[in-house]
Amino acid sequence: MAAETDMTEYQYSLQGLDLSQAQAAQDLLTVLKQESDTFELAEARDSLAQQEQDESLVAAAAQPQKTWLLWANAKNGKQLQVGIASIADGEVGIAILAEHQGRGLGRLTMEALIDWAKKVGYDRLWLDVDETNEVARHLYHTLGFVEVGEDTMPILLQSGRQANLVKMELILA
After folding, report:
1. What is the dihedral of CA 120, 115, 43, 165, to 10 degrees?
2. pTM above the 0.70 mark?
């Protein structure tokens, strides 16, 4: 018996997160945290990072921050939240459910985030990515991000796996 594949076609949209979507966002984050180490990596990185307050960080903190939910609208009318993206203090974050990866959604989302960042006055964006995540690193490179610094940041995850974060930056000005 052949395995059945879900052939549902979706149209995707990106919507700013507001309080009316809080439960949907929380439900999505619960699933994303089970599928990926992305959020654990960010939390571990933040706890290890020095809280240096230089002029660039102070300037970045004054810039707007935004979080978006990524929605999939099926032809049958069903609407699902399939990802989340954010920009805060110049840091870009994106996570998409595994089932919806490989469809160009990451690229479209990143392009929308970059466009928004330019409109609101950011001069640069940055992110950390696991050095083994070749698909994401390739995407970021094609969008103009470059790796900065020579060293990776090792993070030991609860699973026992060691991840090595690579910092990437995109100059917008």
Report:
1. -130
2. yes
